[in-house]
Amino acid sequence: MVKIDPDRLMADLKRLRGFGATGPGVVRLALSPVDLAAREWLVGRMTEAGLDARIDGVGTVFGRSRNSGPALVIGSHTDTQPTGGWLDGAMGVMYGLEIARALAEHDATRHLAVDVASWIDEEGTFSGLLGSRSFVGEAVDDSIRGATNRQGERLADVLEAAGLAGRPRARFEAGRQVAYLEPHIEQGGRLEAIGKAIGVVTTIVGLRESRLCFTGQRNHAGTTPMAIRRDAGAALVAFIARMNDAFGQLADADTVWTVGRVELDPGSMSVVPGAADMYLQFRDANPARLQAMERALAELVRDFNAHDAVSVELQTLDEPIEPVSMDATLAEHIARAAEALAPGQWLRMPSGAAHDAQVIARCMPACMMFVPSIGGVSHDFIEDTAEAHIVLGCQVAATAAASMLLQLSARHS
Amino acid sequence: MVKIDPDRLMADLKRLRGFGATGPGVVRLALSPVDLAAREWLVGRMTEAGLDARIDGVGTVFGRSRNSGPALVIGSHTDTQPTGGWLDGAMGVMYGLEIARALAEHDATRHLAVDVASWIDEEGTFSGLLGSRSFVGEAVDDSIRGATNRQGERLADVLEAAGLAGRPRARFEAGRQVAYLEPHIEQGGRLEAIGKAIGVVTTIVGLRESRLCFTGQRNHAGTTPMAIRRDAGAALVAFIARMNDAFGQLADADTVWTVGRVELDPGSMSVVPGAADMYLQFRDANPARLQAMERALAELVRDFNAHDAVSVELQTLDEPIEPVSMDATLAEHIARAAEALAPGQWLRMPSGAAHDAQVIARCMPACMMFVPSIGGVSHDFIEDTAEAHIVLGCQVAATAAASMLLQLSARHS
């Protein structure tokens, strides 16, 4: 059986952390100088591992196997959030590198083809999931022309300045690339809460985002009796209570909804709010449930406008994101590897977060696996995973990758 | 009976509006150049009316009657909010000026003493209610040394630059000044809603302000199941619902409470809020009810901390402001004048807003009267009152003032 080298894996993970290390966390925004330096380093490590590696025309690092036969792509991202953790994305890419090396060191697996990818800008510094979207053939040139970061720098200018603008872009090779594996930290607290070490992802949840704008009447908070107020803030609070009831009736244990932002206007202690906005996001693995929640929300809005002195307008933000099922056959390889290496310590679960895998799944069968996040924390400097879990996860992924490729090779030969 | 001159009153109100006029509203922040110019103009008008007028050491314009005998002080303020209306405060001062003139034009009232005041900085550009606080003998020098406006200018420097710092300050004259009348716009919608023209103020309500800080756990909004969340924003919403129930049981029709400002941290759609603050103000005319509401709030906080996964801390902001009763005998003069001039078109009501009268009441009997605000709007450029109501209000105030002074003179002689 293929064996990874835990010391080599951890050393490379820590070297990558050095690019943008900030306290225990990392600040390595897509295409920033420190991110570009990390990409050059990664190209070097891939090349040493025998891959044909380069940075492509959008910034993705792609290491192509020189072996023939069906290829498994293992990838994730090495860019971070503005205050990012050291493992979010980075761990999956380093797993891919270590697995390519480990397979090449064993006779039974030396012939297998593993491509390794670090997709650019998963975190959306300029344009979220850009690398994977470009890889699957989405027309991203409009995104590239229009996208800017928070400092107002244009993506097109940044690619030009980095000398990447003219380069070829990594693209899906139909027939050769036959499966995608994305290992990742869980970024939630479920594995830890029930004492499991590996999550086999069934579905990446879908997502809806909306803004609800309440319009009442701004008034003096001392002189306006409660009975004649049209308090937009109080209406917002009442609406959330009704929404919690309605969503609670539709939800299962994995359904989530979040009011992450609220704004009252004018935001003064002495003024009855005349306007109030809330930002709502909800996620679920079941497309029918997402639609039922949308209908329930629209009905609440209609009912509110029919009966309340404050009006509310529902604005949809962005395109809806539909749930994406992971490939069951690939997932079974992960499950078998997990059961062999950590019997009873794994479970099947949805991914509540978005990942490049949901994009790659458009062109080939895709799967994901999780390792536990300490305290469920991610997108934060203190994000971490026990080293034993990092190492176990890579051994599970390597075992599953070999198993997938041996089966796929048998089918293709 | 004393008769005011409606044309003279309206002309002076419009002249005063000219200082800082901005569209239909006025920007005349305390001690700004345009406010100082308005004060100089006001001193001139008071002098023409026969008063001994000057700007005092804190900026208050005080016009002292040259008549002997007990004096009625009529006052309000001519400074405005950052986006102020043309009548808030200004109307009461112009009433005082017109009443001093009108009384001097009639044989039966020519001997009566009316002092007229425009108290500095009622609106708190530097230090709220400064002029009336100085007048009643509060030690305001600490306020003057410490106070700055939003631009960071120090009050002490501004008084120095205006040449006011060394001047004597107007002070309450015990024995001579025996009553205070403050006419004002309602700044609320009650008179308009029930079709009344005059409000006779019974009490200026007391006020409590607090911040409630909820502390939960910041988490990824996709990967954190509802069951293990500690969502500070959701806790805030649940708390408000319980508070509304508790306050609703204690309230009468005049009790008001307002959540004017809410902040969720970090305020992102994809992050479960880890902290949330709400700013609460409540007002009532009954000190016992204010205390009962404080107790209910403290009990809700205790109960919440005992049972909820999110903790809440109650922080009291500023000193509590206790309700101030208006003098019933003075109010009766206003009520009789209102009934004589507008039979059935007046009512007794609390003032939901703060006024200089609540400060002046510390040293002498004080009363207030209101005229309707169109749409209940104040602290806004579109603040207005029907001219008929402005004129009627001044005639009622003049009649009441004469009646008060004739009675007080009889008592003192």
From TrEMBL, chains A, B:
Binds 2 Zn(2+) ions per subunit. Zn(2+) 2 binds at residues 88, 123, 379. Its cofactor is Mn(2+); Zn(2+). SUPFAM superfamilies: Bacterial exopeptidase dimerisation domain (SSF55031), Zn-dependent exopeptidases (SSF53187). InterPro entries: Amidase_Cbmase, Bact_exopeptidase_dim_dom, Peptidase_M20. One of its GO terms (molecular function) is hydrolase activity, acting on carbon-nitrogen (but not peptide) bonds, in linear amidines. Keywords: Hydrolase, Manganese, Metal-binding, Zinc. Zn(2+) 1 binds at residues 77, 88, 184. The keyword Iron does not apply. Homodimer. Belongs to the peptidase M20 family. NCBIfam families: hydantase, PRK12893.1-2. This is N-carbamoyl-L-amino-acid hydrolase. The lineage of its organism: Bacteria, Pseudomonadati, Pseudomonadota, Betaproteobacteria, Burkholderiales.
